Amino acid sequence: MARIMIVTENDMLRRYLGEKLKRVGHFVTRVSDYDVALTILFESYHDILLTSVSSQNNEGLLFSHEARRLDPEMRVLFMTGFSVVPLVCDAIDDEGFGDRLGRPAHLNQLVPEVSRLLAA
């Protein structure tokens, strides 16, 4: 199974997603602070980073770019705050980012989307 880091300021969402992923056998690290998350990513490997993009000052996007600099092979799954963003977007941009889970997400899609990322 995969090592997944969840980084979001929303305590309830972080807890819920972590438990859902743990139940299917993934190792989950849950973090609320971007600086702490970068320190952890510097010290340990994670297959997938699950993070929010809807934070003040684009912190989530800036954080994800830093995380990918530390580990270019790590997949990133974004949760967005805009319902107009498709639940799953297959387009990949220049940085390799393109996997998005809309929020409020259909959380029953989380585990299949993580499986799809791991198979890619």
What's the topology here?
Elements lengths: L2 E5 L3 H13 L3 E5 L2 H10 L4 E5 L6 H12 L4 E6 L18 E4 L7 H10 L1
Parallel strand pairs: 1-2, 1-3, 3-4, 4-5
Helix pairs in contact: 2-3
The count of helical stretches stands at: 4
CATH level-1 class: Alpha Beta
Shape: globular
What is the count of distinct domains? Answer: 1
CATH topology: Rossmann fold
Topology as a string of helices (H) and strands (E): EHEHEHEEH
**Unreliable stretches:** 82-98
Please tell me the CATH architecture by its name.
Answer: 3-Layer(aba) Sandwich
Q: CA-to-CA gap between the ends?
A: 14 Å
Share in helix: 25-40%
Tell me the number of strands.
5
Average predicted local confidence, pLDDT: 78
What does this protein look like?
The chain has 120 residues and is α/β, with parallel strands linked by helices. Helices cover 38% and strands 21% of the residues. It has a five-stranded parallel sheet with strand order 2-1-3-4-5, with helices on both faces. α2 packs parallel to α3. The longest helix has 13 residues. About 14% of the residues have low confidence.
Give a short summary of the structure.
The protein has 120 residues and is of the alpha/beta class.
Name its key features.
120 residues, alpha/beta, Rossmann fold, 4 helices, globular
